[in-house]
Amino acid sequence: MRMRQRHTLLGLVIAGLAGLWTAVAAETATTADLPDRRITAALQYPGITLGPDDTLNVDLLIKNRGRSDETVLIEVIEKPEDWTVEIKRYGTVVSGVFVASREDQTLNLAAAPANKEIKKLPPGTYRFAVKAQTSDGALSQSSAIVVTVVSAEKASERVSIETSYPTLRGPSGDKFQFSLDVRNDTGQDAVFNFRATTPPGWEASFKPAYESKQISSLQIGANSSKTVEMEVTPPYNAQAGEYDFKVEAQSPKARAEAEVKVVLTGTYGLKVGTSSGLLSLVTERGRRSTVTLLVQNSGSAAQREVRFEAFKPENWKVEFTPETIEDLEPGAIKQTEISITPAEEALIGDYSISIQTEGEKANQETEFRVTIRAASAWGWIGVGIIAVVILGLAAAFRILGRR
C-alpha cells in the first residue's frame, strides 16, 4: 500500500513538472516570435469635432511588442499658440510610462486655452502632435490629431435620433414600440436623458434594446450609437385616430429630438340584448309578435352599416325595422324592432331563432327562444268540453243512484 502511495505521489510530481515545462516552453516560443525591441504610440482618434462647451481629452495608446521591457518618454511636439497641453495618467501629469513586454498602457492628452478666463473652446481647427521614444532614444514614434471646434448651434446637431418606422398602426388595446437609434457624434462620452411628450392619458417608457428594465438615461460613447426602445401605451378609452409624439435625448452639451406617430384603428365590439335581459317570447302560430333589440357599440371605433339576419324555422317570418343601423358611434345604443310570425302549421312547443348582428368589423349572435302555445279559442273549447263531461258524469251518477 505504501509503495502504491509513493508511485501515485511520484506521478503527480512528474505531471506537475510536465505542465510547468509546457508552460515555460510555450512562453519561450511566444517570446521567440517577438522582435528584440518594438513600441507603438498613437492617439486614439486622428481627428475629432467638439463644441464650445466640450473639453479636449484624447487617449494616447502605448504598446510594447518587443521582448524587452521599455520606459517610454512622451513629448508634445506641436500645439496651437496660447494653448496648454498635458499628458496625464489617472489625473496625474506624467512625462512617460513604463511598459512591460507585450503589455499596453493608456495615457491621456488634455488640452485647453492657456487663458483661464476663456471658459469655452474657441471655434476653429487645431492640430496637436506628440512624440513617444524609449529612454535611450533608440526607438521613437509620432502621432497627431486634428481638432475641429464648431459653434454651439452646430454642436447640437451632432446628436441625432433616427427610427426606421416612425409611424405605427394598430388597435387601441395594443402597446406600441419604437426602435430609436441615438447617435453621439460629439467626440466625447455622454449620459443622455430621455423624455417623451405624449397626448393626454398616454404612457411612455424607455428601455435598452432587447432588455426589459426601464431607464430614463443611458451613457453613449463618443462617435458611437445605441438603440433605445420607446414603448407607448394608449388609455383604455382612446378613440381611433392619429396621435403624435415627440422624443428627446439630451446631454449636458447636446440635444436631439424626433417625432413619431401612432395610428389607432380602434377596437370593434357589439353588445346585443333586450331592455329586460330576456331572450324569449310566447306567441301563437300564425300570430305576429314584436320584441325590441338593443344594439350597443362596445368598441372604441365607430360601426357603419350594422345589419341583421335571422336563421328561423321553415315558413316562419322574421322582419327588422330598421333593417340597417347606418352609424353607431362608440358607446352609443340604438334599437331595432323584430317582428316574428310563426308558421300557421307550427306545432305547440319551443323553437329557436338565431339573430346575427353584423357590424363593420364585429358581429354578435343572439339566440331567441319562442314558445308556441294553443290559441285562446281552443282554450275555451277545451273548458267547454271538460264542463260537458263533468255534467254528463253527474247525470249518469244520479240516474244510477235512483235505481
Helix residue percentage: 10-25%
How many β-strand stretches?
A: 28
Helix segment tally: 3
Structural class: alpha+beta
**Average of per-residue pLDDT values:** 85
Computed over alpha carbons, the radius of gyration is 45 Å
Biggest sheet record: 5 strands, antiparallel
Shape category: rod-shaped
First-to-last CA distance? 132 Å
Tell me the count of domains. Answer: 3
Strand order of the largest sheet: 1-3-8-5-6
The fraction of residues assigned to DSSP E strands is over 45%
Question: Which fold name corresponds to the CATH topology of the largest domain?
Answer: Immunoglobulin-like
At the first level of CATH, the class of the largest domain is Mainly Beta
What quaternary form is this? single chain
Say which CATH homologous superfamily of the largest domain is assigned.
Answer: Immunoglobulins
Low-confidence stretches: none
Instruction: Please state the second-level CATH architecture of the largest domain.
Output: Sandwich
Question: Overview of this structure, please?
Answer:
With 403 residues, the chain is α+β, with helices and mostly antiparallel strands. It has 3 domains: 113 residues, Immunoglobulin-like, CATH 2.60.40.10; 108 residues, Immunoglobulin-like (Sandwich), CATH 2.60.40.10; 108 residues, Immunoglobulins (Immunoglobulin-like, Sandwich), CATH 2.60.40. The protein is built from 3 helices and 28 strands. The strands form 6 sheets. The protein has a 5-stranded antiparallel sheet with strand order 1-3-8-5-6, with no helix packed on it. The protein has a 5-stranded mixed sheet with strand order 2-10-9-4-7, with no helix packed on it. The model has no long low-confidence stretch (mean pLDDT 85).
